[in-house]
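task queued by scheduler; priority normal; single chain, no ligands, no partner chains; default sampling; output format set to structure tokens
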Amino acid sequence: MTGPAARAAQLTKSYGTGDTRVVALDAVDVEIESGRFTAVMGPSGSGKSTLMHCLAGLDTATSGRTWIGETEVTGLNDRQLTRLRRDRVGFVFQSFNLLPTLSALENITLPGDIAGRRTDRAWLDQVIDTLGLGDRLGHRPAQLSGGQQQRVAVARALAARPQLVFADEPTGNLDSRSGSEVLGFLRRSVDELGQTVVMVTHDPAAAAHADLVLFLADGRIVDRLPDPDADGVLARMRRLDARRDAPGASTGTTGTTGTTAEPS
């Protein structure tokens, strides 16, 4: 795939009107590079999950435009959005969202089965091998650890070989060891399978697995950190928190006032 995996131009998302208007995204311009692992971080309420949902077509923008590949998401009807998400996007969420009556393998292939899409067995085997699930395929979710369940959810997201995988706090319900395993597998899906991953997280150690970290504050991208490590990410987050708490700082709750970026 050439060009960015996803992008947004002047993407704005607001809720309410007048004095109660809340600006979640404030004219965001961003490109998500193909074949890379991008993490999105920011204080609570900064707009990071809203950005992911709008890029993925899970939420509609108030104004601005978004694309997945060369397809403009903005303006697609419900049927077109469903097809786009089904065929070209994978999702991994904090809650595993596995069906308890199905085996791991049946959960992995379920979206394709519902769509009537033939499974690429060679690709599926490669995903399963990469995620280390070969000896767990017959197990139901209750027979799997939290880390194993999340790996099944990752495999389900990758099974259709989507252009882009969105992960929203994928380690939020996991202990540190299981979380590290899942992050390692997401990293390998980029390095070994050529996947593109966008992950929303609040955890500097999780963000350190990415190629690039985007920092949001008050609905704007205010900083970016390539080739991150946990200490560097934590330092950037502390800087954002300090600026947010400074007297006279924008709260991002109304209007379009935001924070400007400092040099990297």
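post-processing summary
- Confidence is low (pLDDT under 50) at residues 251-264.
- The beta strands are 6-15, 22-32, 37-41, 63-68, 71-72, 89-93, 164-168, 197-200, 212-217, 220-226.
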